């Protein structure tokens, strides 16, 4: 069992930096519960609570916890119904989650529209951030309901996408089957002087067997016929904008939002967790740390592929700081954990085997895990 160094044992500095426990508890409440348990056993511990995310759901919340200001805007939802979407603003930097405006979670299973879902609301949210003075945009693009190559987003920002006779194309990826011309002359001129960072861990191309429609279309309601139609539509759209860019890693992220953002808006794609760690000032808060407590609802193979706990653990590893993780359940073996520099895992199911109780009472159980971490890792 790894422990903090003896010199810090009297007043250890602990960074508690988990992602959310999806469907159960947001990252800020995970931090609070774990910290409360640690303090019960080690009252002198100096604890920095830093909610983090991987660029998807929870990214705005992490920014708000770090001091950003909440802003909201009524925008067009993925199937045209208005939704209230939140973003975060600090100075001239805005943090936007595509999911809040154009997300899958906004729709019921019966309300999915694989062919017609639009990313227009995300473009409207970007416009609102520009109106508020933002000139650096961090765009987290996980959890989208759309497969429209970001066309709706572009239209909200002034781009015209029309049929052969000059009529506007219908919304959604299905509408792109009728696209005959893309006119970029009306694109919001403020974007020329705006830095846009895509926060994502998706590297799929826009089209083909590994593309946006084939890989992610089914979870958005697309049947095999829809997938084929969407893939053809995305290829058609790319042929009107920049065909070669369809193969760029990340072009297929968020139903092709990655493609539109990189080719038309000049966005730079970066690993989501790295962007979030910078946003929340993680390096400064980590200074002098003796132990990192990270985690998420489930530790599994996806955790190792650029998710928040893996990114935070890598950060700590590079600074020689031991890492433990909290989670609801752990599916990783010892070799996987060692490769991710996670020394020990504390799972809710170790305290309470009943999954229903874990989902219903995560705060109580996480507080108990905090106590266990303090006893075992701090020599308390």
TrEMBL record:
It is an enzyme of class 2 (transferase). The keyword Thylakoid does not apply. InterPro entries: Glyc_kinase_flavodox-like_fold (IPR018193), Glycerate_kinase (IPR004381), Glycerate_kinase_RE-like (IPR018197), Glycerate_kinase_sf (IPR036129). GO terms for molecular function: glycerate kinase activity. GO terms for biological process: organic acid phosphorylation. Pfam families: Gly_kinase (PF02595). Keywords: Kinase, Transferase. Its EC number is 2.7.1.31. Belongs to the glycerate kinase type-1 family. NCBIfam families: glycerate kinase. This is Glycerate kinase. It comes from Spelaeicoccus albus.
